[in-house]
Amino acid sequence: MTTSGSGIDEAPVAASILRQSGVQRIPSPKLTLFVRRDFLSPELCAALIAQIDAVRRPSTIADATGDAGFRTSETGDLDADDPAVREVEAAITALTGLDPAHGEPLQGQRYAVGQEFKGHTDYFEPNGADFERYCSVAGNRTWTVMIYLNEPEAGGATRFKAVDKIIQPETGKLVCWNNRRPDRTMNPATLHQGMKVRAGAKYVVTKWFRERPWGW
Ligand SMILES: O=C(O)CCC(=O)C(=O)O
Ligand SMILES: [Fe+2]
User: Fold this and answer.
1) For residue 161, what is the domain's CATH number?
2) ipTM greater than 0.85, yes or no?
3) What 8-state DSSP symbol labels residue 49?
4) Per-residue pLDDT tens for 10-21?
5) In angstroms, what is the span from residue 157 Cα to ligand 1's centroid?
6) Does a structural domain hold residue 49?
7) In this structure, how many other beta carbons lie within 10 angstroms of the beta carbon of residue 89?
8) Model confidence at 140, in pLDDT bands (50, 70, 90)?
9) Domain span including residue 181
10) How far is Cα 120 from Cα 81, in angstroms, rounded to an integer?
11) Whose C-alpha lies nearest to ligand 1, atom 9?
12) Residue 1 lies in a domain
């Protein structure tokens, strides 16, 4: 298969995603955002939820905001050798054409009732205090791919405020977007938040891609 490398060049990635059936592009000139329902089977989602529960710990954020309530979910790094994790990785590669070497390890998140991730962008602020620490090896982020593993009883939607779009969690639904504009500059219109879960729990997996190959 051909890959589109880092994703810094938007066109081949968007073309690859749009070749798959069932993909919707969110109609906005401000950002490139796609949704694909039923991207993963309920069985695979359940296997990933079990893994997240086995390894989760309180989430951290880069560039401390001084707001302890900014990201209150729990995070789990998933075992790259696990068959369920390999299957998701392969499905993401097949959808996007992005080179897996440019991807950060797949990460799981769990939000309990009242937990949220307030408005943020996934790219690192080039002038931020942590830029060197997080970006000196692999560079800044390019694309984000996120998959909901379940449907909380209430709340937990992902909101893109700048384009007035709210995406509801559904088991197996994928959301992906370019964190940049087609001219490669960082795109502030990708600002988004994981809204508070009101009932039940919310589980997602996220994969972020980088300008250069990922290295520890
Ligand atoms: O949970 C969500 O809906 C959003 C998560 C998110 O934005 C992130 O992990 O970067
Ligand atoms: Fe995010």
Assistant:
1) 2.60.120.620
2) yes
3) H
4) 999 999 999 999
5) 9
6) yes
7) 17
8) very high
9) 10-210
10) 30
11) 206
12) no
